[in-house]
Design brief:
- It is a single chain.
- The chain is an all-alpha fold.
- It has one domain.
- It has helices at about 5-15, 40-50, 60-80, 85-100, 110-125, 130-140, 170-175, 180-210, 220-235, 240-260, 285-295, and strands at about 155-160, 165.
- The chain has a two-stranded antiparallel sheet with strand order 1-2.
- Helix 5 packs antiparallel against helix 8 (about 180-210).
Length: about 300
């Protein structure tokens, strides 16, 4: 059995690839998905999805499909700075339009989790040393001119927004081993459980917030993009745009007062690569992965 720090660390990097750590317990067991998200959390998500640039709707026409595709991109860009290419968004729009007009091309939560597991493991096994080092570097906390290597203690990375931290060198060794077919098979089994748990948690939260739109039995292409972003970035959509801005300003004040660091938040996003609230290698959720995900809806 893989020890918790090693397992969490390797999967912590691969969160951005689809291998999440949220459900792993102290002995490598998986926490069950939460049965009843709190009303406070559900209300917070409702506020976020009610914002003008965040309003996903029912896809029942070509127009609504196109609007949902644009909304998904705007939501992700606003909260993380991450953008997909126009050609790749065409794939999303086509998949969403197929669902809107023909009622075909949705996935269950289980099928989405399986797709993310396969895509993540495949992508992880192709990472070279430079890609691994770059990804680990984004998990070193906030990087500024004064802290180019991040704000965490030397050699540590932050696995998820809520913790824990892990040793980067152990994670690096673990990820290199993923190039071996036998190691990939082992991680695939763990990843499937972890990703399923994480997807189920998100779906239950979103269902409780907007039961008229979200269902574990019917995830549309644009919903899959938003949900995947949420899982990979650690952004649970619990803060509105104004609340994110307030949190970023509070973080800026904290570093100025407690650590003597001065940096601008004007060009930074809350989440994503070098995010102020949580920095993750979200750039690995790239056009190639997006297209591969959309192919699962064909």
């Amino acid at each position: 059995m893989l020890k918790r720090p090693l397992l969490l660390s390797g999967i912590g990097l691969a969160v951005t690839l689809g291998l999440t750590v949220g459900g792993f317990g102290l002995r490598g067991t998986i926490f069950a998905a939460k049965d009843n998200p709190s009303e406070t959390s559900a209300a917070a998500v409702r506020r976020v999805f009610a914002e003008p640039d965040s309003r996903l709707g029912l896809s029942n026409s070509l127009e609504t499909a196109q609007r949902n595709t644009a909304t998904a991109q705007n939501l992700i860009r606003h909260r993380s700075g991450h953008q997909f290419g126009a050609d790749s968004l065409t794939f999303v729009n086509q998949a969403e339009a197929r669902y809107a007009t023909l009622g075909k091309g949705s996935l269950t939560a289980s099928a989405l989790a399986q797709a993310l597991t396969e895509l993540a493991v495949e992508r992880l096994s192709r990472m070279n040393d430079a890609e691994i080092d770059a990804a680990l570097g984004t998990m070193r906390g906030l990087r500024t001119d004064q802290t180019p290597s991040g704000t965490l203690p030397p050699g540590e990375i932050l696995v998820r927004p809520w913790g824990p931290t892990a040793k980067a060198e152990k994670v690096r060794d673990y990820l290199r081993k993923m190039r071996s077919p036998s190691e990939r098979a082992l991680v695939t089994d763990f990843a499937r459980l972890a990703i399923t748990n994480e997807v189920q948690n998100r779906i239950k939260l979103f269902e409780s917030a907007q039961p008229e739109l979200w269902s574990a039995q019917r995830i549309t292409p644009t919903q899959a993009v938003v949900l995947t972003y949420s899982v990979l970035s650690g952004d649970q959509f619990l803060r509105t745009s104004d609340e994110l801005a307030q949190t970023m300003r509070a973080t800026q004040r904290y570093y100025a007062e407690k650590r003597g660091l001065s940096f601008s938040i004007a060009e930074r996003a809350p989440y994503g690569t070098n995010g102020v609230i949580y920095s993750s290698p979200l750039n690995l959720f790239d056009d190639e992965m997006l297209r591969a995900l959309m192919a699962r809806f064909a």
